[in-house]
Write a structure and sequence with these properties.
Elements: H1 2-14, E1 19-25, E2 31-36, H2 41-47, E3 49-52, E4 66-71, E5 77-78, E6 88-96, H3 107-120, E7 124-136, H4 162-176, E8 181-186, E9 192-197, E10 200-201, H5 202-222, E11 226-228, E12 242-250, E13 253-254, H6 267-278, H7 280-287, H8 293-297, E14 309-311, E15 318-320, E16 333-335, H9 344-360, H10 378-384, H11 393-401, H12 404-410, H13 412-430, H14 435-441
Parallel strand pairs: 1-6, 14-15
Antiparallel strand pairs: 1-2, 3-4, 4-6, 5-6, 7-9, 7-10, 7-11, 7-12, 8-9, 12-13, 12-16, 15-16
Binding site for ATP: 182, 245-247, 314
Domain GS beta-grasp: 15-100
Family: Belongs to the glutamine synthetase family.
Amino acid sequence: MDKQRDFVLRTIEERGVKFVRLWFTDVVGTLKSVAIAPAEVEGAFTEGIGFDGSAIEGLTRSYESDLLANPDPTTFQILPWRGEIDPTARMFCDITTPDGQPAVADPRNVLKRTLAKASDAGFTFYTHPEIEFYLLKSSRYGPEGPEPVDSAGYFDNVPGGTAHDFRRRSVRMLEDLGISVEYSHHEGGPGQNEIDLRYADALTTADNIQTFRTVVKEVAIEQGVYATFMPKPLSEQPGSGMHTHMSLFEGDVNAFYEEGAQYQLSRVGRQFIAGLLRHANEISAVTNQFVNSYKRLWGGDEAPSFICWGHNNRSALVRVPMYKPNKGQSSRVEYRALDSAANPYLAFALMLAAGLKGIEEEYELPAEAEDNVWSLTPGERRALGFAPLPSSLEHALEYLEESELVAETLGEQVFNYVLLNKRREWEEYRSQVTPFELRRNLEML
């Protein structure tokens, strides 16, 4: 760590860095930032930077508000969009109490705790997110709703299109930040795009997702458009998901791979999926944390609505992708409920905890879904045991409140905050009189 700190201090001097932004995340997943001068960085490494935690969503209770942001030197990067005028760098922080203990409500620490539990069981957790978002002409909208930048569709090549330049600039910026991109393409909705980040350990991936959102927003501003990670911004179009591929490794060996097994999927892999399925409803209020998230889950367009798994079945909640013959490292499972607005630290922690529970308790994997689940009748789905995901945030909170797994993984403070904060959101939503009601009822009743 000392070598890494020395590298950071030397780079700041050599590159003429004028500001260093210290980044951390609140419980909702909003990125927070405080800028310090280069002269303060060495002190920040040894003593941290103090701030009032009670002013940050869910981070502390008011009577224990003093917290310290401790920069992680391994996350140091120059921010490419700042250019050569006042070069600016960033580091992610771990949040601690004044006596040096990890802050229980720091989302990064919640994930670290769960990763440590996996490590104790001999596992390293890797993730690979496919992040969808919409490019709009503006954040303003009229009676017809937000206006996308184009009317293109899945994988469309749009000559001279905004999205081409946008993706090229975004990918180049991400690569400059050390974030490897696997694919980028136009998605199914007008103005909808997807950029997939390369596999990495879950903590690095969660940091990368937070950086990714910032890069996408910055490039959009630079190009005169607006980017949104809202799960369902357009009622008649697909929502934006963050399908996440996951695998556990034991050293250099993929614990999900077993040669000769069905789909090359090991017993550990099957138990992991069983854990995801059994606890899907409980973790839903975190993997899909907004009122709007459930408009995506129940809006069709390949969003999963029912709890089941399948091999290469895009209607299933958990998918076992096509494996590459004789390439054991690529065995993985894909969780399809997660949306692009989730807090990645908390979502990854809960998905990992659910999978580990399946392994610990040796859950049996139910039969796979071989048909398109959406095309089945309700009776057929019931007969096959495909239960629905929560239909609303309120419904998801009922499952969350009763969940020992979620309470244990998040810790009491984060658990209680999520519950209170999301109940408040649901109550505010429920009290609205919507344009739909006015259109339907005002003149008729």
